[in-house]
Structure formats: structure tokens, C-alpha cells
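Preliminary data (for renewal application), KG4 complex.
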Amino acid sequence: MPDAHILGIESSCDETGAAVVRSGEQILSNVVASQIATHQPYGGVVPELASREHLRAIVPVVRQALAEAGQTYQSLDAIAVTQGPGLAGALLVGISYAKALAFALEKPLIAVNHLEGHIHAVLLGHRQMEQRQSEGGKLHFPVLALVVSGGHTHLYLAQVEENLWTYRNIGHTRDDAAGEAFDKVAKLLGLGYPGGPIVDRLAGHGDPLAVKFQIVQIKHRDRREHKQGEDKPVQAEEAGPQFDFSYSGIKTAVLRYVETEHLKPAIEARRRALAGIDKPALEDILRLCDRQTLDLVASFQRTMVNDLVAKTLAAAREYDVQTLFVSGGVAANRELRATFEREAGMQGLPVFFPSRALSTDNAAMIAAAAFPKFLRREFVAMDFSAEAGMSLR
Ligand code: KG4
Ligand code: ZN
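Predicted structure:
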């Protein structure tokens, strides 16, 4: 296999990332400039601010990635950049910079789908693990990949043939993504932003069985969709059951619980107290949470985790998959990882995650996903553009 150094650039949401990965396997550098502090006062990502911060960060972040990797602009073999999905203005910063670099250096340019990046983050870890364990254990396909992040809760069946990866979507969220539910519930409870990591750390301090939540179970969609203006149903492109998710209901249920239990004054007090602490530690947040709130947080997380695991494993059985990947920001969640390990293990299904650091947005995953495209010489022309609503296939 040829040795190739690919510079990955990621700017789809609120992290500016640059990384150099050798031959899709070995991370030489992986620099992430987080914008959390910028968006924190708003309790969510503000698109205009995100673009501005990417503009500020992109040049130093790329320079740092090259320096840490011991590479120069000239020694790179290709430049890979996230094309979508994501915030259009944010994506454009990375894309414009990648184009300028590729043009000036006369290097090939590779466009990568952010979701494919998340899936290939698992592979990075897996390849390293293979090398370490030297078991020579190969991945068995088809792979079922759950991509669970702030913007997505998607199930894909993945296949690979001669370095060509293809994906088929067999489930997605009908409303909120799982990470969005973590963030909204944390915000609602005055716990800060982003909510996922905070809920993860607090959940261990509460009783996960204290509050009963129910998540809507969506019946398999009738795949014979009607074309507009036609009575006769048309067969959907790909037949087969769908495994969809829905997380806006649990957010409303938490809100209702807050109202009926009169938790609002305590939440407001906590919000004000935390706003006055620079980078609050877990102890600060714990001190501001009573038992009922900790039980609520633990119960919310348990319900989310059980639903994600149950639906994914049902899809794995239905499609008779050989391997499971779980990736995206929410894959950093410790209870989710432990539950997947336990439940998939009981089904004899091998499950792989990226390292926790590679679960959230980064550019190493973009460089990794670009490597099979590099081998296939799948390069893009200079007129390619951002695709905010890009799907993966
Ligand atoms: O993949 P990512 O970094 O960005 C997107 O592509 O969306 O995912 C960010 C999401 C946020 O919603 C964040 O709250 C969630 O992942 N997240 C977590 C954890 N770490 C990040 N959710 C639950 N537990 C975590 N430990
Ligand atoms: Zn992401």
C-alpha cells in the first residue's frame, strides 16, 4: 500500500480541525480549536459566530498540525476537507482554505462527507488496535454504523469493495438528534453547554430508575411512498425495514417534569451561579444539584442509552450484520459505550468505537476517510462547493 500523508481539514460546526494522517491509519497530528467559550453564553452554536471563529483559527490550526506532524506543505500528498453536512458558512471557510492550498501547492483535493468521517474514526482506532494486538483479525462486512451526534442519529449499512465505500441509510431521527436532546435537556436544567459531556458526568451520581420516561416507538415506515399527485404507491428506492428514532418527546417530558415538580426556581439559581464561575468543574455543578435533579439526569440518560442500543441492535439482527460501529459525539458517552459492549456482546456482535477524543468532531477522521478516495484517485475540481444538507450513500 503506498505511503500517503493527507492533511484533513474540518470546519462543519463549532470546531476548527486540522490533522495529518499517514495512509489512513496513523495519526501524526490532530489539532482541534474548540469554540465552546464563544457559543457558551448563547447555550448553542451561533452560525455567524462559528464562521468568524473558523476564519480566525484556520491558518494557525493548519500550521500547528503540520508542525506537530513534522510535515511541510510540500511533503503532503493530498488535502482533504469536509464538504458537508453542516453549517454552510462554516463549511465554506475550510473549503476555501483547502482549495487555496491545493491550488497553490498543486496537490490533489479530496471532498469528504462529515458522516463518513465519523464512521472512519472507528476504523482509525480499529487499525491501530489490530496492529497492537497483531491478531490480524479483519473487519467483517456488512458493518452497521450508528452515527450519533449533535446533528445526526443515523444508521448506515456499510460495504467496501476495492476501496470504494458505499452506505445505505436504514434509519434516522424523525426530529431531534440524540446529542441535541442531551444539549437541550442540560440547557433546560441550567447545567451549561454543551450538555452531553455534563450529563455524562452527572448521571453517575443519580438513580437512573427514579423517573420513568417513555420514548416513542416508531412503526417501520411503509416503504411504498406515494409520489405527489399520484394515487398509486411507488416502491421506494431501497426496500427493507426502517429503524427510525425520535427524541423531541423526551425533551418535552423533562420540561413537564420540571414544571410539575416546581424545579424552575432552583434551575434559575443554578444557571446564575454557574454563569459566575469560569470553566465550572464537576464539583461546582454537583454542589448546585439536589438529589431530585441528579436522579432526573440519570434517568434521562438511561432512557436515551437504552433506546439507542435497542434500536441499533434490532437493526443489526434484521440485517444480519457482522460488525457494529458506534461513532459521533454521543459515542463518547460512557454509559452508551458500556451498554453497547454488554448488549452487543450478549448477541455475539463485535462493537467498535473511536477513542473518546476521536468520537467528537476532529480532522483526523476526515483525513482517514479520504485515504480510500486517494487510492481511487477520487479528486474534486476547484469549483466544488459546500453542501449543507449532504447525505451519505
Ligand atoms: O460529533 P460532534 O462533535 O458534532 C456534531 O457533528 O454534531 O457531536 C457533538 C454532540 C453534542 O450534542 C454533545 O453534547 C454530544 O455530542 N456529546 C455527548 C458527549 N460528548 C459529546 N453526549 C453524551 N455524552 C457525552 N460524553
Ligand atoms: Zn460531527
